[in-house]
Design a protein that fits this description.
Shape of chain A: elongated
Strand order of the largest sheet of chain A: 2-1-3-4
Largest interface: A-B, 110 and 112 residues
Oligomer: heterodimer
Number of helices of chain A: 15
Largest sheet of chain A: 4 strands, mixed
Number of helices of chain B: 16
Number of strands of chain A: 7
Strand content of chain B: 5-15%
Order of helices and strands of chain B: HHEHEHEHEHHEHHHHHHHHH
Helix content of chain A: 55-70%
Strand order of the largest sheet of chain B: 2-1-3-4
Number of domains of chain A: 2
Number of domains of chain B: 2
Chain lengths: 428, 389
């Protein structure tokens, strides 16, 4: 065997990787199904979701009031409820039955019931007035709106009535006000001040779109290779023997280069187009994207070794999208995941990518402040690179073995057939 | 004659189902995994002991008492005390805490001299559920602290507690959460996500089994088994999945409503009947897509894109009325939307079954969309070259 100087050796390797890279790109761009996932899905979904989740919050959710008191105080209370951003009093009912049937017809999503002794109890210094609130729990946002509106009005009325009552006890106005609120508080909602649903959900969805499309695209490409040639190693034009590293590198590089461009679109452009949170440093986001995409590519390539047909991954694993969303903690708090699932979540690059992206993009953290996620993604990149190479090598070895076996069996069968032909000729 | 064809196709499909692990994996394993995953993950019902922080610039009895009181609640736990705002903010950006309370310096002395000091509450609403719940709890604590101060002042002036309470809390709001009084998130999420996943698997496995015939060119044998009757061929092919998934859907409902005792104020039986209608509706969508696009790769990709959107368009997390109007119209084309509405009718509202008939009828009517283009599938089945791939 001829020995090359190191530089030449390296140059040959790089040339091989480049060749694999170009061939993989050709494979991607020549397949309708893969193109649909890599480009149509990644370009369309980030636009589609913000359009579906168009309004940040529900404004003026219709509710009904049942005012059994019909006094100055009850009317004021109702006016204040109506004035909140969260709900609107759309129906005034004379009794609970009426309100209940409106609720069953889904015309309203909450009921406020003011009993007939409301005014009397407010005016009596030593009494407590009661208001009953009924919330529709068919959606979290209904419940949240009704409860928030009712709480705001209640707290506001508290201060007012308390001041009155302290005055009645002989305090002057300034003292009564102080007594009613000896300790004040103010609230600051950081990073998503309106508490908007899309502002909270869509950053995670954007990461998931990139993650899942890349995963299914890679599995599909593996399935296509298998269907065409029976093995993963096949490269148009030449056969790569014992070149797993070059193959894995070249292919991952192809996916990475496509998705790096798509990431700029999905992670930087889309949040700006649709006024989603985007207070992070774009450069930090792109630097964070590098280990995310590499880890995802190697993870997907590892799994794709088990895929034999182009459709199987999509059919069997598409359900994982929402599972991954929950595992990331973006929806259900990660501090409250059962330990087993919290550990399970660590396997997937999406968990760290979603949290890191929310921290940088929505909360304005720097890459240094997100270093935990960033380093874990690099760690995953390393681990999944090794598993990808290992599994690829194994699948190559396995293919050779079974192919040899098949050849062996075929030759045996041929021999038997030949013998039979010879025998039958002899018989003649 | 028809019956014989149906039986032949049915048995043929059952054999195919058993012939490879994909079908069993995609149905039984996936659904078992998802039931285990969602029901165990959301088992807590309401997230408790959410991590929050405190910035105590006062360091007095009172500020420490407030901290202890916050920690004592069920909803949150104080995981760390930070020296200043910046530290706490950074911890929040790192996702370590969902909210923190800022207690200013001189809180105690300001309270004593009636200067009305202000506590500030910060919450991370980029994580909506954790942020909102932690924020709600801190706000309650701030209100209670204010009430406690009032009580101490009044006690000092010689009033009794029964005289003080009406002043501190002149209006009592009693909240009733209709149908789900514990605000159990599992009741709210699992009852839609699990049927959603079931529907997705029905859709994808149905499309796969239909297009696989075209792909490996066995479609002629399929039609022959049905005596070239397209209706028999499709029904016979879909029936094993209808049965398999109905059994799983029922098992899922039994686990949720009977074993885990989710609330059920209406008809449990009707919900299970609706489950079958929902499965048939999803299969109709699958058949319709394959009829229009008898190409394995494309049909499955299209169904994947549609199937993912179903969760969103069912409107269980983000209500339909908040969507843009074209999407509001699209929700009518999503079987999960109708099944979700029936679930709400029966589970939360306890409406009479007749009230849910309309949604049920829509689910059943989905079968009709498979009729017009059935001829295209026959053509594709008989001419393998017809496949565009």
């Amino acid at each position: 065997m001829k020995k090359y100087p190191l530089a030449t050796w390296l140059l040959y390797r790089i040339e091989d990787v480049w060749y694999v890279y170009v061939q993989e790109l050709k494979r991607i761009f020549s397949d309708k199904g893969v193109m649909l996932i890599f480009f149509v899905a990644v370009l369309a979904y980030p636009i589609l979701y913000p359009f579906i989740y168009y309004h940040e919050a529900i404004v003026d959710l219709p509710i009904a009031v049942v005012d059994m008191n019909a006094s100055h105080y009850s009317r004021e209370y109702i006016r204040m409820i109506d004035a909140t951003r969260e709900v609107a009093v759309s129906y005034k009912c004379t009794n609970m039955n009426e309100a209940e049937s409106l609720y069953h017809e889904r015309k309203i999503h909450g009921i406020i019931y003011i009993p007939s002794d409301f005014e009397k109890n407010i005016l009596t210094a030593g009494a407590q007035a009661t208001v009953s609130v009924y919330c529709d729990m068919s959606s979290f946002l209904y419940y949240k709106n009704v409860l928030q509106a009712s709480n705001f009005v209640m707290l506001d009325q508290h201060v007012k009535i308390q001041t009155q009552r302290y005055e009645l006890l002989g305090n002057d106005k300034a003292m009564a006000q102080t007594l009613a609120q000896p300790l004040r508080y103010e609230t600051v909602m950081l990073y998503n001040p309106a508490g908007g649903y899309p502002s909270y959900l869509l950053p995670s969805v954007l990461i998931l779109i990139l993650y899942q499309t890349m995963f299914f695209g890679i599995c599909m490409l593996a399935g296509i290779a298998r269907e065409k040639n029976g093995e993963l190693y096949y490269i148009e034009g030449r056969k790569f023997e014992r070149s797993t590293f070059r193959l894995v590198f070249g292919r991952a590089f192809a996916y990475f280069s496509i998705y790096f461009g798509l990431s700029v679109y999905a992670l930087l452009l889309v949040p700006r187009l649709f006024d989603l949170p985007h207070i992070g440093n774009p450069l930090d986001i792109m630097r964070f994207t590098v280990p995310f995409l590499l880890a995802t590519a190697f993870f997907s390539m590892t799994v794709s070794v088990f895929i034999r047909e182009r459709e199987t991954a999509m059919v069997t694993l598409l359900f994982s999208s929402i599972v991954l969303l929950f595992l990331s903690g973006a929806s259900w708090p990660s501090s409250n995941l059962p330990q087993f699932w919290a550990d399970f979540a660590r396997l997937f690059p999406s968990t760290y990518a979603i949290n890191g992206y929310i921290h940088i993009n929505s909360c304005g953290a720097s890459l240094w402040e997100t270093r935990h996620e960033y380093y874990v993604l690099w760690l995953q990149t390393g681990i999944y690179f090794l598993t990808a190479v290992g599994f690829y090598a194994f699948s190559g070895w396995y293919y050779e073995k079974t192919a040899n076996l098949e050849e062996h069996i075929n030759s045996k069968i041929d021999k038997i057939a030949e013998n039979q032909i010879v025998k039958s000729k002899r018989a003649e | 004659m028809l019956k014989k064809g149906l039986k032949a196709v049915f048995l043929r499909e059952c054999r195919q189902m058993m012939s490879r692990p994909l079908y069993i994996f995609g149905s039984i394993f996936v659904m078992a995994f998802c039931c285990l995953f969602y029901l165990s993950m959301l088992n807590e019902g309401v997230p408790q002991k959410l991590p929050v922080g405190i910035v105590d610039c006062d360091h007095t009895n009172i500020s420490r008492m407030i901290k202890r009181e916050v920690d004592a609640g069920q909803a949150v736990r104080v995981v760390a005390e930070y020296a200043n705002y910046t530290e706490a903010r950074e911890a929040m950006q790192r996702g370590e805490i969902y909210a923190f309370m800022y207690i200013p310096a001189n809180l105690y002395s300001d309270l004593l001299s009636f200067k009305r000091p202000t506590i500030t509450l910060y919450a991370n609403s980029a994580y909506t559920l954790g942020g909102t719940l932690a924020y709600k709890q801190l706000m309650t604590m701030a209100n209670l602290a204010s009430g406690a101060v009032q009580r101490e002042v009044m006690r000092g002036r010689g009033y009794r507690d029964y005289q003080i309470m009406p002043i501190i809390q002149p209006i009592v709001v009693d909240t009733h959460i209709l149908g789900n009084p514990w605000v159990n998130y599992s009741v709210y999420l699992s009852t839609t996500i699990l049927p959603g996943t079931l529907g997705l698997m029905v859709l994808l496995l149905s499309v796969f089994s239909l297009t696989h015939e075209l792909k490996i060119q066995t479609a002629k044998g399929w039609l022959a088994a049905a005596d070239n009757n397209m209706a028999v061929a499709i029904i016979g092919k879909m029936l094993p999945y209808t049965i398999l998934f109905s059994i799983m859907g029922w098992a899922m409902n039994v686990v949720m409503f009977k074993v885990m005792h989710f609330p059920m104020s209406g008809s449990f039986i009707f919900l299970n009947v609706a489950m079958v209608a929902y499965i048939i509706a999803m299969q109709s969508v699958a058949v319709f897509v394959v009829e229009l696009l008898p190409m394995p790769g494309v049909a499955i990709s299209i169904c994947s894109l549609y199937g993912t959107l179903c969760y969103t368009l069912s409107g269980f997390s983000y209500p339909v009325e908040a969507m843009l109007s074209p999407f509001q119209a699209l929700t009518w084309l999503v079987p999960l939307r109708h099944y979700y509405m029936i679930t709400i009718d029966q589970m939360l509202m306890g409406l009479p079954v007749t009230q849910s008939f309309f949604r049920f009828a829509i689910l059943m009517a989905a079968v009709l969309i498979t009729i017009p283009a059935a001829g295209r599938l026959r053509k594709a089945a008989l001419n393998p070259d017809y496949i565009g791939e």
